[in-house]
Design brief:
The complex is a heterodimer of chains A (125) and B (138).
Chain A (H helix, E strand, L loop, with lengths): L4 H13 L6 H8 L3 H12 L3 H19 L4 H7 L5 H12 L3 H8 L7 H6 L5
Helix pairs in contact in A: 1-2, 2-3, 4-7
Chain B lengths: L6 E5 L3 H11 L3 E7 L5 E7 L2 E9 L9 H13 L2 E7 L3 H10 L3 E2 L4 E3 L2 E7 L4 E8 L3
Parallel strand pairs in B: 1-4, 5-9
Antiparallel strand pairs in B: 2-3, 3-4, 6-8, 7-8, 8-9
The chains are: A mainly alpha (125), B alpha+beta (138).
Chain lengths: 125, 138
């Protein structure tokens, strides 16, 4: 089933604003329908509820930040839209099976700086 | 086969001020802020809908790429605010203009209608100009 323009707009809003305290009511307004019908139509088209979609975007971004940056977990939590680190950690563990710190320890990669920048700025490490 | 752009350099007069502007005012996400033992600071941000394009915020300093004279020239051009940078997209140019103006972002003027959409021109205050555009569907 192809998404309607309203559903596409709501999905795009999730991609842009997932870290800004989006509510399902706001998304339903974007899509132009009642909250009930919006949730049902969204799940039919995308296979998950709007709330699940927002959570997936937040936690996906959290995993990227934990893996590729040295930002403290509290900062990662706020950057992806959670107000409290306790809630963030609980949701993260339920979604991934690990705490944010455990995930970071397991997946941390060295910072990727393309060689052209290292050459330009004479970075030896 | 090259598939996409992953990093783009943006010269700025101050990395601290740039981090504050792009993250706290424009709402971009901080990707990496790491200072190496050599003192080199790798500072990158990403736009909300473009998390795989890192904007590398760089202060022009003497390096193998820029000799002292060239670095000074870039700093002078930045201070004059004459380096064009690029164009950003927004779903609502007028709303974005009002929101960013309220946060103290400088604009060359109010949004205007063009054949391609609604556009406002913004300065980051760190040497760069950007169009902020809502494009018409095509």
């Amino acid at each position: 089933m192809a998404p309607s323009p309203g559903l596409r707009a709501a999905r795009a809003q999730i991609d842009r604003e997932y870290a800004q305290g989006l509510t399902v009511a706001q998304l339903a307004k974007t899509a132009g329908g009642s909250t009930f019908h919006f949730i049902r139509a969204f799940r039919q088209v995308y296979g998950l509820t709007p709330g699940q979609c927002v959570r997936a975007r937040r936690l996906g971004r959290a995993r990227e930040l934990l893996t590729t940056t040295a930002l403290p977990v509290t900062e990662v939590c706020h950057q992806v839209g959670y107000l409290g680190v306790a809630t963030f950690s609980r949701v993260f563990r339920a979604y991934t099976g690990e705490s944010p710190s455990q995930f970071r320890k397991r997946t941390r990669r060295p910072t990727y700086i393309p060689s052209c920048f290292l050459r330009m700025y004479r970075v030896d490490d | 086969m090259i598939t996409k752009l992953s990093h783009v350099t943006l010269f700025v007069t101050s990395q601290d001020a740039a981090k504050d502007f792009y993250v706290n005012k424009l709402g971009f996400t901080l990707h990496t802020d790491q200072t190496m033992d050599s003192g080199f600071r790798w500072l990158t941000v990403v736009a909300p809908a473009q998390p795989d394009l890192e904007i590398v915020l760089v202060e022009p300093k003497e390096s193998p790429m820029l000799d002292a004279e060239s670095a000074a020239a870039v700093r002078m051009l930045l201070k004059k605010g004459v380096l064009g940078a690029g164009a950003f997209e927004t779903p609502d140019c007028r709303k974005t203009y009002e929101t960013l103006k309220a946060k103290g972002v400088q604009f060359a003027g109010a949004p205007e209608e063009r054949f391609y959409g609604t556009e406002a021109v913004m300065r980051d205050g760190l040497g760069n100009w950007f169009s902020v555009t809502t494009q018409k569907p095509h």
